[in-house]
């Protein structure tokens, strides 16, 4: 990186930063300064040509055009950030919790993605979230949610779960085959901090292969696959939320997830189900349809361990 | 910058880069690797929040939407690059010519901007480019175009000039007051490498104050002014083209040009005109209307001094 330092005008970047006036908010100044330095260093490092820069301008314009033409439904700009790892990175940053013992950390977060619904129905412990036909493996999923500091179970945690069906589509994308809220549900942990429910062993799927994100993936000789995953959003007033995804350990796309959302502690073992607990009441047994079992404990950090929130950048409407 | 290095996953960025497949072109790999590193370092350096990142996604979507809704006429994405100095920087990079003596360099380049026209008329030496009424100072502009290596004058150079009128608008933007090709023209240097013509002393103007670029300028507490300038595009088959802008030395916006296109050697002295050359023929005197004089010599680098061209990134249609 030292090679370019003396080649081009050494004062240029600082000059751009120094044009910010005294009324810039400190956070805006911090963000703009860092962004300008990195964009300039990038351009100098690769000797970016005017044609390459203009190709980038055109590419971002075309990407915004797709969003405008779909009335905001298709957000390829968001997807571009995902395939370069940016959403995964800001998720890691937001969920960073400093602990003295590196083995003593909360369950990792992973990107929320575009398919969460605020309208998922409340369900009872032991219910199934499966409401429409599928070709998947029904899975008995259960576990304990614990406090990072005390390791004690936490009652009354909201456990919000959503997943694609065995055809790789969410209910939103597949109204012909799935009823609304198929494979979605919210549960509360019981007095022992336990949740239990039935879901599907998840299925891998591809990002859309007809837009700017796919153009970039092709140019990088990359695939468009996400590993099979189940989304979780685990919340309690006294704890830092965990928004995450879990993955079957034998999925072939774990290492190269096209949005880089896999973390080691989120890889799970969907085992063949030997038997349901002998004390399970009949209405939770669902006729013994389950063929897999996933036991997954979750650790939440108390809010007292949070990083301070950033001040807002600026009011853009001002 | 060292503070974040051990805070977040140290392998993440290299992992994102390593997903590029073997069929990525070397240039694409170079650009993607550098861009991913700088975007990630930026996010870690400022602890970018998910809300800030999403505000950025929305901002770029809105910017692309303006372009789509104007059928490509309003390119705010390009303008955003200008106000962070990126177009000026890629122009500097593209026009970098290494010479052993730092005082021995070609005339600096500056951004082309959106107002160049391929259809400007050819004019004769000594003609005026002024065709419509104005409130400006008519200027007799002349000079010699020289070879950087030999310092000899170059005959038959194309000298393409365009500028806004005294109201700060180009002919495209002002059809009520200006005829087509007002304040535009192409000239050829004579056997002594000389050009001469009449133009206006230029007038400062503001970028549009109703879009994303203005939103950013407000948030940075910056103004939207460009210093007064005249555009030049100087070409000859055997020389590296010089696309540039020149500025009157007493303009108040030179130091803080909102697109950062001012270079020291482009700042000129528009002097009061004492007299036109005594041997100038009557048809070049235009009734003695000129009140200012600008003498500006230009130096062109022979193409043998060029940097090698980059290979293309990729064929996006492939």
Tell me the number of strands of chain A. Answer: 12
Order of helices and strands of chain A: HHHHHEEEEEHEEEEEEE
Shape of chain A: globular
Whole-number average pLDDT of chain A?
Answer: 91
- Poorly predicted tracts of residues of chain A: 1-5, 314-318
Classify the beta-strand content of chain A into a percent band. 15-25%
Major sheet size, sense and barrel closure of chain A: 5 strands, mixed
CATH class of the largest domain in chain A: Mainly Beta
CATH superfamily of the largest domain in chain A: Aromatic compound dioxygenase
**Multimeric organization:** homodimer
Task: Count helical runs of chain A.
Answer: 6
CA distance, first residue to last residue of chain A:
39 Å
CATH fold title of the largest domain in chain A = Protocatechuate 3,4-Dioxygenase, subunit A
What is the total number of structural domains of chain A?
2
CATH architecture grouping of the largest domain in chain A: Sandwich
The helix fraction of chain A, in percent, is: 10-25%
């Amino acid at each position: 990186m030292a090679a370019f330092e003396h080649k081009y005008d050494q004062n240029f970047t600082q000059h751009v930063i120094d044009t910010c006036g005294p009324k810039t908010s400190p956070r805006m100044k911090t963000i703009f300064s860092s962004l300008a330095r990195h964009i300039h260093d990038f351009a100098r490092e690769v000797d970016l040509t005017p044609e390459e820069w203009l190709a980038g301008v055109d590419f971002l314009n075309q990407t915004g055009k797709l969003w405008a033409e779909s009335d905001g439904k298709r957000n390829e700009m968001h997807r571009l950030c995902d395939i370069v790892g940016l959403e995964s990175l800001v998720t890691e940053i937001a969920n960073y919790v400093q602990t003295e013992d590196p083995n003593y950390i909360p369950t990792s977060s992973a990107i929320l993605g575009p398919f969460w619904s605020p309208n998922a129905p409340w369900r009872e412990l032991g219910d199934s979230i499966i409401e429409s036909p599928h070709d998947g493996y029904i899975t008995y999923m259960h576990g304990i949610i614990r406090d990072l500091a005390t390791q004690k179970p936490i009652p009354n945690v909201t456990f919000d779960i959503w997943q694609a069906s065995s055809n790789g589509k969410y209910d939103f994308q597949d109204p012909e085959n799935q009823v609304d809220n198929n494979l979605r549900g919210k549960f509360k942990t019981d007095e022992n901090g336990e949740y239990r429910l039935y879901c599907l062993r998840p299925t891998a799927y591809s990002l859309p292969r007809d837009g700017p994100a796919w153009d970039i993936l092709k140019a990088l000789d990359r695939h468009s696959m996400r590993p099979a995953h189940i989304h979780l959003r685990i919340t309690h007033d006294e704890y830092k939320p965990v928004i995450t995804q879990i993955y079957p350990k034998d999925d072939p796309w774990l290492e190269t997830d096209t949005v880089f959302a896999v973390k080691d502690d989120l890889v799970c073992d969907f085992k063949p189900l030997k038997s349901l607990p002998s004390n399970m009441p009949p209405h939770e047994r669902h006729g013994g349809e389950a063929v897999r079992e996933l036991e997954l404990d979750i650790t939440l950090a108390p809010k007292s361990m949070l990083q301070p929130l950033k001040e807002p950048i600026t009011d853009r409407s001002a």
